[in-house]
Automatic annotation (TrEMBL), chain A:
UniProt-recorded name of the protein: Cell division protein FtsQ
Membrane topology: Single-pass type II membrane protein
Domain POTRA: 120-188
Keyword Transmembrane helix assigned: yes
Gene Ontology CC, one term: cell division site
Keywords per UniProt: Cell cycle, Cell division, Cell inner membrane, Cell membrane, Membrane, Transmembrane, Transmembrane helix
Stated role: Essential cell division protein.
Family: Belongs to the FtsQ/DivIB family. FtsQ subfamily.
Higher taxonomy: Bacteria, Pseudomonadati, Pseudomonadota, Alphaproteobacteria, Rhodobacterales
Domain of life: Bacteria
From TrEMBL, chain B:
Gene encoding the protein: ftsA
Bilayer topology term: Peripheral membrane protein
Protein name per the record: Cell division protein FtsA
Species whose genome carries this gene: Ruegeria marina
Top-level taxon of origin: Bacteria
Compartmental location: Cell membrane
Keyword terms, alphabetized: Cell cycle, Cell division, Cell membrane, Membrane
Amino acid sequence: MQSLKRTLLPIRFRPHLPAGQDAEFGAAGDAEATGSAIRLEGLTRLKSGARKSDPAPSRLSYRMQRWMLTPGIRLGLRIGVPFCLVFALGSGFLASEKRRDALNAFVADVRASIQERPEFMVKLMAIDGAGSNLAADIREVVPIDFPVSSFDLDVEQIRQVITGLDPVRNASVRIRPGGILQVDVVERQPAVIWRTRGGLEMLDETGAHVDDLAARGDRSDLPLVAGEGADKHVEEALRLLATAKPLGDRMRGLVRIGERRWDVVLDRGQRILLPEQRPVQALERVLAVNEVQDLLERDVADIDMRLGARPTIRMTEAANAEWWQSNKTSGNGQ
Amino acid sequence: MMTDLYQSQRAMRQMRQQAIQRGVVAILDVGSSKISCLVLRFDGSGRLSDDASVGSMAGQTGFRVIGAATTRSRGVQFGEITAMQETERAIRTALQAAQKMADIRVDHVIACFSGANPRSYGLDAEVELETQVVTEAEIGRVLNACEVPEYGAGREVLHAQPVNFALDNRSGLIDPRGQLGQTLSVDMHMLTVDSTAIRNLAHCIKRCDLELAGIANSGYVSGVSALVEDEQELGAACIDLGGGTTSVSIFLKKHMIFADCVRMGGDHVTGDISMGLGVPTANAERIKTFSGGVHATGADDREMIDIGGDTGDWEHDRRTVSRAELIGIMRPRVEEILEEVRVRLDAAGFDHLPSQQIVLTGGGSQIMGLDGLASRILGQRVRLGRPLRVHGLPQSATGPGFSSVVGLSLFAAHPQDEWWDFEVPVDRYPARSLRRAVKWFRDNW
């Protein structure tokens, strides 16, 4: 009978599983219902069951959760607390002198061990583009005890020291793979020789000092300038020298007069006095006159071009006397 | 007393505005069988478009549900809190779960409850306009001219909504502001409840470290969500069959004009089953939910149901009962509830409304065949209602049992004008009486 009834049952309850906090609640209720075996244990069990069956959070946990959901608190916990912790630990650790020194030593050790790896060591200096004298000078002004770590080399400072040398127009310094300190130098090329009371100097086209010279004959290919302040106007001097090319061998040099204008000095003591303004044009005029009238071949001591409107010629003593002589003859009424 | 009401309701309104400005508010429905909580985020979107045309969501998209939780209610009977501690714990449970889901802390809560003997009053007043133009101050004046009935000590006004304005002979004005006329009259619906219930609820919520930002009657808010727009407009009754109470609310012209509550609900059906079959309440609830009904057919005689039990007596625990028997237990109680609802509706004059749509909602409306029974008792036009769909509402909270909580969130986003939303005219203030005294002095000396 019972089994027949059972087969007639169309409705079967699915196990109803509540979700969320109610699940706990339901589970607690079930435990109470099925746990009939331990019912005799009495009050303590009942109490714990009652506590378990309440899904409500305690006031404390509720407040705690609300606190944790507050944006400020969350930010504080995420950033403020770790920061404070790290700060406190750090300052606690560094409070002792001994530990601080140990830390510094450790850091220095680590630094040194990295810097002194063979990959970072510079073993020699290669200098390109400099003559032997200059190379020796460079080695003198950059005193480095090789091998040295590339971390200890201040390449820019070395470059400035090398560029500070007179014969060096510019330089580039770099550390080449393979531990080589590569120095590429462009030397200054001497353009003129400047004779001063102190001796002979070679200047480049900008007037910068290149080197001293023992004798004029050592560099007879270079033109000569003299006079105070000549080194500041080397560019103009070079233009004048280029203009004076037709004079050829007769050219002796240029003299700076009064630190303001040039004289062209030729052999036989001849001079061309050039004006301050437009000296090249004045020289060209003289050369043009020379071309047609052989002015410089004559017995002329100075050609004064200082006043452009009135070029003046000073003749030599002998020519002067001769000129007087011939004039006297004709003055006799011949 | 009047100013007291004004102040407390205004404080709540201010709190609500503050909460909406902050963007997060909790919605709490304290029912007799479950407490459900939603966490809403107001993102400012979904307002009416610039040309004031209604979009696809009818302006109901200003918020999004970001957290939802439901827990078994404890300590609530007939929609009223009877055990404060228990209820507080249940509210805490629901709130904690909802906050956890939303992952945000909520500080303001808008609550609704169903019981506490709601009583409706119709108020009206008529004033002569001073300037022949209806201004906001004039509306405040006419609202204040309403004769407040003696609703008794220990009761408090929960809602007081102007439902109709009439200007001279034109009635049915929704918003008379700016119109011209001589006399302005207003009809107002006022709902009072026992103040102890409100106070208990407020205390429970305060104990949970929350601010009460609004309070509503659950019959009203379930009507807001379960009735569609034309039903609200043409006249309909929303019957929310809850656990401990059955709320009745009547809507006309998109305003609630009547609300009442029958102190019987689904729990009473469960109790009847429990008593009739001699099973625990949990079993009775389960049997009711899975195989309950109100219409017996021939097949139901053969359909046997395990009713279970946990006495340890095998014969006792293996009892079965036919579904027809179960229906025989449930039906009289359901009929009784519906009859009672019918009495309330008749008392409210529901049969005079142009449209007499009845919408059944609430957890109890899921009883199989209820709509057929209800149409016999209440009238032909009965349908089952489910809450409006709102953004982000989880699937588990879309059943008819959640119509009041969904309606409350709609209410929070788009509250109706209440009495206290209008400024009190100046002659209510004591400053005015002082000025009058000064004037009297000046006139007489």
